[in-house]
Amino acid sequence: MYFKTSEKHEALRAQIREFAEAEIKPFAFQWDTDNAFPREVIQKMAAKGWLGIPYPKEYGGAGLDIISYAIAVEELARCDGGCGVILSAHVSLGTWPIFAFGNDEQKKKYLPPLCRGEKLGAFGLTEPNAGSDAGGTETTAVLNGDHYILNGEKIFITNGGEADTYVVFAVTTPGIGTKGISAFILEKGMPGFEFGDHYNKLGIRSSATAQLLFNDVKVPKENLLGKEGQGFKIAMATLDGGRIGIAAQALGIAQGAFESAVEYAKDRIQFDKPIAFQQAISFKIADMATKIDSARLLVYRAADLKENHEPYGKESAMAKQYASDIALEVVNDALQIYGGNGYLKGMDVERFYRDAKITTIYEGTNEIQRVVIASHILGKPPKEAASPSAKAAAQNITGARKKMILKEGSAAERVAVLVENLKSDGYDFSVGIPIDTPITKAERVVSAGKGIGSKENMKLAEDLAKAAGAALGSSRPVAETLRYVPLNRYVGMSGQKFMGNLYIACGISGAIQHLKGIKDAATIVAINKNANAKIFKNCDYGIVGDVNEILPLLTQALGTDEKKPAGPMKKIKRITPKKERPSYGFYVCSGCGYEYNASLGDPAADIAPYTLFKDLPEDWVCPECAEAKANFIEA
Ligand code: CAA
User: From ligand 1's centre to the CA of 184, what distance in Å?
Assistant: First the structure.
């Protein structure tokens, strides 16, 4: 077989290349430096019809094929990796699931503005505990009349905040794994649907990446995409196509770095001739070109299979894995050819070097691509169910905590209950440490997160620190972005670790890196107005309330008198929560006293582990004495 792109493909490439050279290349360094999303350029691309390249004209698309789409992503990424992924996430992830799984009304409503580029699309699958294990989704959607109510969060979402239309995955039937996940179309602006900050990334900095936050978001029933329980398959099928886009992005980055290095190597004279003609460099160039061409063939093959409605899941995973692996090798070689000059900011190879890395991570790490490829070849490996305790442990980043969350009663009553509990745990608030004690040496810390609000409000945290006899700390953004406190006062895995007794988190939502930095605290107290904040799953005591109201009351309750200097720190024993009764309950046979253990199931009767008692077949009998299920008693 002789494979060659058509004249039309190459004409499109030339058109996009000309555009990217004029509209993207000169600005890419600045967008990278400023973490700036190139809105105007995206609008210009929309005007050219490129945001709907592979979709039919009846929906406002350009009616071109998937290879044309791959070429478009490749050519954008050849000048700027960020622009490549903006298009890829929009076309493959934000738009395709609606095109493939939407009903007529959904397609008519959502596709034309997406295909014409009047609206930008995004895809919300990844969560803190559901990355590679996408089936571990924890965002919930509960049907309530005509609406689903969504609660939870998504992280690392490409086009997050900039996009208008989001395909989001949430659990509609808990406890049944991937078959309980459903897909929804969400619109920016729905009440309770908010965004976290634009992440500060290593590369692809012109693309926006943000958290999606759902707090009781009311999503109309009509926005369920496909059927209830089909969400995981929709996500997987979408990613099969999305991986062609990421493969094309990696290919474009490699191509850009390669061309730049070749040009440099031809100009740079050492030992009286261009380094391009020194064998060490010419061999590198030959290897780079071969790798890029091989990747291109894999990418276009996957695109062509998709275009022709043939199976392409294995091929798109191969293309993504190979193109991104060789992109890392090519950008590394390109920078090596540039030598010291390539190590400088402003050189495109320096940016390509950083941009390439993400392509081996997102839309399925390259380890997951190998899982996918291998499963196409070998079939499914036997599954071991993750135990509920392992899943719960993943939530509890700070370990087992008491989790007494105070939501009811007046603010003063909630504060009084907290203070009473802290005192009975052994905290003496007549003594204290200086507010500027280093975090690593402090016995107590009061920390402020972004929820503290304006800089003047830091006074509330400082007053509370003095009243609690504590040092003052903060979350990372408060020190790094807002600069309310010096950098050496932020607490977290990447900052200072707190290993003392009492940690009071004020307006801190609970990023994983922050929680890991306080996991050794004896007692964690959280004050936050968002009842869904992750910190509440990781604290001993929590008050759901506004810091403006709670902090002054707590300061008052702890006493504003001068504190006596505290003696050397004595570590307080961590409060260990009482073992909770398993949610699946205990059922005991009235005949012989056998206790059904849901975590074990009943293998002899083919009952899988984690089968709830209520889900046992009605003809199931006691394995010890053959007593009927109906004669079991809930203990
Ligand atoms: N298409 C359709 N259905 C599929 C499928 C596919 N490609 N892959 C799996 N399924 C179906 C299976 O057939 C199975 O259905 P049945 O139970 O009816 O047989 C069901 O889904 C569950 O499949 P598995 O048991 O194989 O699922 P798993 O939990 O073992 O996971 C996995 C498999 C491949 C590891 C998957 O979890 C995965 O792809 N993980 C990576 C997730 C990922 O790529 N995330 C990227 C997020 S998006 C992003 O990164 C965007 C960006 O920033 C640009």
Answer: 17
